[in-house]
Design brief:
homodimer, alpha/beta, Aspartate Aminotransferase, domain 1, Aspartate Aminotransferase, domain 2, 2 domains, seven-stranded mixed sheet, three-stranded antiparallel sheet, 11 helices
Chain lengths: 379, 379
């Protein structure tokens, strides 16, 4: 099997599954229980939190465990909006965000907030002057994706953060679900909130992280027992938390030793795709190493996906979270790609485990599939 | 080890951990991915949903997967409030709810909703006339716990549901986290929303269920990719979902074959506790079979907990989710228990695996501990 859909989800590391299993088996008490068994489990959570904090170079009390990237994004956005609405009701984001951000903003608009959706250039970046102009004294939040999940474009977070902090009192939230480990981002001083999803770094589904800068207050979407310093209540998913810490450590190790390889695979993939007549590459030049988006105008991407899966090769059309809509990708549209091209897009997303051999097989099979489909469809 | 803290959390069944492990290992694709691997995983989720629906005697499309009981309660309460606020801003609950409901209502009060907190009698039940009087044309939600987590009291859901539906257009939400399998409740026609938590029925932490009657609409707390029919977005925690279905099936089987035993253990426990001079039982007469709450006025419950854990016996003071506050239990206070008694409460919570032998050992060690502590504390 050649799995090239790593932006949808990654295969959990064996060690991660084993850490989950062992924790669920041996440490099942509730970490809030006052007895010794509860204390042992609480210690595990504390260790995992400490380990994650040190890997992300943040403080332990800035780690919030959530149920996934979607919850982290929703908590950052709605949590800021509901908490700080008395300071202002203006929010800024871009036109190429993930559905979990986009839909949060749509909901807030219906509740009376004003949202500016900044356009992006063909490079997927918002313009600095657009951002500076959009900021008002009522702006309480700017939320931007670091690495785009469909095309791999990179937002210049550090520069944008400076503009935000120099011109407003807004909080700055980053969706770094796709960027972590792939495009270096030590969290800048200007950033207040960062979302991560464990199953995108070979951890387990149902687990996410939110970096929350100390002293930033959020309206808890899930309130109750006061876990996670009252920001996110609910009995801690202890085995999931231990597994997430393990996954992050292994993943960042792999990131160090495999980063060059990934860049090499990307070049190879894009050069060879570029040489195929029918292919148009949608991914901008300066982009993350793991995502390559291209179109074959005239061929329905679903048909190509099924042709490739017959050869045990798995690719996608776009974000898994938007895969079932018939609309052309909002990301490609925002990048200025034509409708026909946006409707025929294919996304290849690599992992650090991807090999040169896999890319070669993929390219061979892709060419065969195009040839075959062109005949069938009288291209 | 004698584990008598099953209302805080239960030990996951071995088969449940194994189901999780196997699914995480072999079925890691994203169920929203269009390729075959995604389809296989989507099928697993569909099967788990169908199995849960059939066990709960509801329809598949009435099952919403969440990250736990806290999320289910928050989604039911805030989801109703935000969705239906144009119909009215009055909400009704009781004074003995779980923190995840209580805190949701406190948040909503701060946002301009009016909340009636119905009092309860010494039996932990709200009065029917109080409920009928509280309902107004602005009432959009009544939320009540089926079985109380601290004392095991049972709310007469069916009768209360009739009053609600005959006198209002309010939705009726039940927190059945503690009741499921212990106190029979086929979901009555009058109930619209029911919360469950997997780790309370030997499933895994980080997994919950919300029964949502078809056609009931909720404001999604977590929006995005539109999973769970748009009510709860986020990549499905597939291994957790499969494990939850397995846990529920095994648990309800155990419930059938061990229900009588549990009632017998409860009688034995309460009779023998009642015979100890220093003990006052707080659990009302008609209550759930697994929870027994009692006080030993004058002895700090933490001290007793630690004395028992030296004998490898694990009990608690109250809800794990409220275990770290110094306040007397709000549940016992609402039941009319004195402050001194409410501050010295111990909760024993059994599982279907609990044995008569364990209860006997517990009682022996409890008596020894009381004797010892009385001497130390000059009782």
């Amino acid at each position: 099997m050649i799995y090239l859909d790593n932006s949808a989800t990654t295969q959990p590391y064996d060690e991660v599954i084993e850490a989950f299993r062992k924790t669920a088996l041996d440490y099942y008490a509730n970490p809030s229980s006052l007895h010794r068994k509860g204390g042992e489990v609480e210690r595990l959570v504390r260790q995992a939190r400490g380990s994650i904090a040190s890997l992300l170079q943040i403080d332990s009390d800035e780690v919030v465990f959530t149920s996934g990237g979607t919850e982290s994004n929703n908590l950052a956005i709605k949590g800021t909006a509901f908490e700080h609405m008395n300071r202002g009701k203006h929010l800024i984001t871009s036109q190429i965000e993930h559905a979990s951000c986009m839909e949060s903003f749509r909901q807030l608009e219906k509740m009376g907030f004003n949202v500016t959706y900044l356009p992006v250039g063909s490079d997927g970046q918002v313009s600095k002057s657009d951002l500076a102009e959009a900021l008002t004294k009522d702006t309480i939040l700017v939320s931007l994706m670091h690495v785009n999940n469909e095309v791999g474009s990179i937002q210049p977070i550090k520069e944008l953060g400076t503009i935000i902090k120099e011109n407003s009192r807004a909080l700055f939230h980053i969706d770094d679900v796709q960027g972590i480990g792939k495009v270096s981002l030590p969290i800048p001083d200007t950033v207040d909130l960062v979302s991560y999803s464990a199953h995108k770094f070979h951890g387990l589904k149902g687990n996410g992280l939110l970096y929350k800068r100390r002293n930033v207050s959020l309206f808890p979407l899930l309130s109750g027992g006061g876990q996670e310093k009252e920001v996110r209540s609910g009995t801690e998913n202890v085995p999931g938390i231990v597994a997430t810490a393990k996954a992050l450590r292994l993943y960042l190790q792999q990131s160090q030793s495999n980063s060059e390889k990934l860049h090499h695979l990307k070049s190879k993939l894009q050069n060879e795709l570029g040489a195929i007549n029918e292919v148009v590459i949608n991914t901008p030049r300066n982009s993350a190493p793991h995502i390559t988006n291209f179109s074959i105008p005239g061929i329905k991407p679903e048909v190509l996906i099924h042709a490739l899966e017959e050869k045990d090769i798995f690719v996608s059309t776009r974000s898994a979270c938007s895969s079932k809509t018939a609309e052309p990708s909002h990301v490609l549209t925002a990048l200025g790609v034509s409708n026909a091209r946006a409707r025929s897009a294919i996304r290849i997303s690599l992992s650090f485990q991807s090999t040169e051999k896999e890319i070669e097989v993929f390219l061979v099979e892709l060419k065969k599939a195009i040839h075959k489909l062109k005949q069938v469809m009288r291209y």
